């Protein structure tokens, strides 16, 4: 695991943007597409806005990006809570990713149909045609960007819910009582097959839970972020000083 410790949220966005430019560039020297799953929440906003500035826009070959989401609040696209809307407003409306390569989690179908359709799409992207059962399938996304809630959740894997352990599907949906809405989310097995997984966590409200997630006893029901452990890929945590303030190292 790699921990990138930055002074504050602005520095973190800049460090992450530089890391991303480098990683996308190196990956595209070896292959001609880059698959990325974006996160919802508020933390990635600054990063998105930075990537959309003139200073960064031209450093990434956006035409090669294939964009997905890690999870979605099951509200219409126009709703301010919709994760895809946030990403369009802050980044995707400002950079030239071909529309056919942007794969929003649908919220205009039933939650079950939406997750089944998204899973089918991921299958088509990641399971080699000569290995339909996916038995020799090593990697999914080139990059998954994740956030972590103050309660230790990531994606829509919330503490104490069965969805944390879902392993028979890559995408699932469920009713989230606490927020009075359905959620659609990637599950841990497909995320753990990514080549690189990066968490972004800032602010003192995350300090206690970050310590538990990184240094505490493993208990994924209490701290679902702990279930994210790439099998063969890299795990990076980008944290600011406030979020890291309780870590012992
Ligand atoms: O849709 C969502 O709510 C998420 O994708 C969620 O997992 C998010 O990443 C964390 O809650 C962190 O959110 P913040 O960045 O706002 O702290």
From TrEMBL:
<dbReference type="GO" id="GO:0006098">
    <property type="term" value="P:pentose-phosphate shunt"/>
</dbReference>
<dbReference type="GO" id="GO:0005975">
    <property type="term" value="P:carbohydrate metabolic process"/>
</dbReference>
<keyword id="KW-0378">Hydrolase</keyword>
<comment type="similarity">
    <text>Belongs to the glucosamine/galactosamine-6-phosphate isomerase family. 6-phosphogluconolactonase subfamily.</text>
</comment>
<dbReference type="InterPro" id="IPR006148">
    <property type="entry name" value="Glc/Gal-6P_isomerase"/>
</dbReference>
<dbReference type="InterPro" id="IPR039104">
    <property type="entry name" value="6PGL"/>
</dbReference>
<comment type="pathway">
    <text>Carbohydrate degradation; pentose phosphate pathway; D-ribulose 5-phosphate from D-glucose 6-phosphate (oxidative stage): step 2/3.</text>
</comment>
<dbReference type="GO" id="GO:0017057">
    <property type="term" value="F:6-phosphogluconolactonase activity"/>
</dbReference>
<feature type="domain" description="Glucosamine/galactosamine-6-phosphate isomerase">
    <location>
        <begin position="8"/>
        <end position="237"/>
    </location>
</feature>
<comment type="function">
    <text>Hydrolysis of 6-phosphogluconolactone to 6-phosphogluconate.</text>
</comment>
<protein>
    <recommendedName>
        <fullName>6-phosphogluconolactonase</fullName>
        <ecNumber>3.1.1.31</ecNumber>
    </recommendedName>
</protein>
<dbReference type="Pfam" id="PF01182">
    <property type="entry name" value="Glucosamine_iso"/>
</dbReference>
<dbReference type="InterPro" id="IPR005900">
    <property type="entry name" value="6-phosphogluconolactonase_DevB"/>
</dbReference>
<dbReference type="InterPro" id="IPR037171">
    <property type="entry name" value="NagB/RpiA_transferase-like"/>
</dbReference>
